[in-house]
Specification:
Number of strands: 5
Largest sheet: 3 strands, antiparallel
Radius of gyration: 24 Å
Strand content: 5-15%
Shape: elongated
Order of helices and strands: HHHEHEHEEE
Distance between the termini: 77 Å
Helix content: 40-55%
Number of helices: 5
Length: 178
């Protein structure tokens, strides 16, 4: 009888431990899943690229029927193609929750950087991008490049020379996109 009680006790401990391990691994995988999902710009498809380029062909995002349904990823791509460089502020990415209001602001005031200041997301105008290859041949090749979206607090915080982007070699962060 005592032997059977010992077996039941050991079996109970084993089942309890197993349930605990499953619960912990579930929580960990959920946390990892959420952090991955909160990343902006996992990748951009060729369809996104074509859609954004057609939109940018109208010179502005505001008032454009074609641009009214741009996704966050497409907005990011539009910013890059349209000479804007977004850099990280305080080491934090733009929260996905703020994407909709940010998107609306960009659409309404695409060429007016300061109009979005209430969102605490000021954008650096990258002069080096203005007539560079990224608007032409590089724009075709950037579609599958996983770039990170970054925000700078103020234009004065923008780096003087954009060393990570080489117009002659058409690179972003040292990676060839042409």
């Amino acid at each position: 009888m005592r032997k059977r009680d010992n077996y039941v006790l050991i079996l109970s401990w084993f089942i309890g431990l197993l349930v605990l391990i499953i619960a912990v691994s579930g929580v960990v995988s959920y946390k990892l899943g959420s952090s991955t999902n909160s990343e902006l710009s996992p990748s951009i498809s060729n369809r996104d690229l074509v859609f954004v380029r057609e939109c940018l062909g109208e010179n502005t995002l505001s008032g454009s029927q074609k641009c009214s349904s741009l996704s966050c990823q497409q907005i990011e791509l539009a910013l890059i193609i349209s000479n804007f460089l977004i850099e990280e502020t305080c080491g934090e990415r733009v929260a996905r929750e703020s994407c909709e209001s940010y998107k609306q602001c960009i659409k309404q005031n695409f060429l007016d950087i300061n109009s979005c200041s209430e969102l605490k997301d000021k954008v650096c105008l990258a002069e080096d991008y203005r007539d560079s290859k990224i608007k032409g041949e590089c724009a075709e090749k950037i579609s599958n490049y996983n770039y990170s979206v970054k925000i700078y607090n103020d234009r004065k915080d923008c780096p003087g020379s954009f060393s990570f982007y080489s117009p002659s070699k058409c690179q972003i962060n040292g990676i060839d996109v042409c």
